[in-house]
């Protein structure tokens, strides 16, 4: 199915290590995301976005959020998670139409 296909296409969120605070914060939430700690990732990414508005990681964080909601939908079969992911993907496609990961938002 379509959702399964999307979730099977693992995107690696890569970045250059740096000592700046936004990068350090991103590394922390990326670890939660990679570990599949969905609930804590969702809490932490909201804090990250408030603390680091318009950071160079903004697009990646929103993609990770959408993928987290898709994973939760797959686990719990709760339609609200699916709807949240679609809303985020629609927003990403509008804001970043030339993104290399835009294909995942279609």
Describe the structure.
The chain is mostly helical. It has five helices and no strands. The chain has helices at 2-8, 21-34, 38-51, 58-76, 79-95. Helix 2 (21-34) runs antiparallel to helix 3 (38-51), helix 3 (38-51) runs antiparallel to helix 4 (58-76) and helix 4 runs antiparallel to helix 5 (79-95). It is globular. 24% of the residues are buried. The mean pLDDT is 84.
What's the multimeric state? single chain
Beta-strand share of residues: under 5%
Mean pLDDT: 84
What class, by secondary structure content? mainly alpha
Helix content: 55-70%
Uncertain spans: none
Gap from first CA to last CA: 14 Å
Largest sheet: none
Cα gyration radius (Å) = 13 Å
β-strand number: 0
Q: How many helix segments? A: 5
Shape descriptor: globular
The secondary-structure element order is: HHHHH
């Amino acid at each position: 199915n379509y959702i399964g296909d999307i979730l099977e296409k693992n995107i690696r969120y890569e970045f250059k290590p740096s000592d700046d605070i936004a990068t350090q914060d991103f590394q922390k939430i990326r670890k939660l995301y990679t570990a599949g700690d969905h609930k804590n990732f969702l809490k932490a990414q909201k804090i990250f976005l408030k603390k680091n508005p318009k950071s160079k990681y903004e697009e990646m964080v929103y993609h990770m959020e959408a993928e987290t909601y898709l994973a939760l939908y797959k686990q719990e079969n709760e339609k609200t998670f699916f709807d949240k992911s679609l809303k985020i993907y629609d927003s990403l496609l509008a804001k970043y139409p030339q993104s290399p990961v835009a294909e995942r938002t279609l």
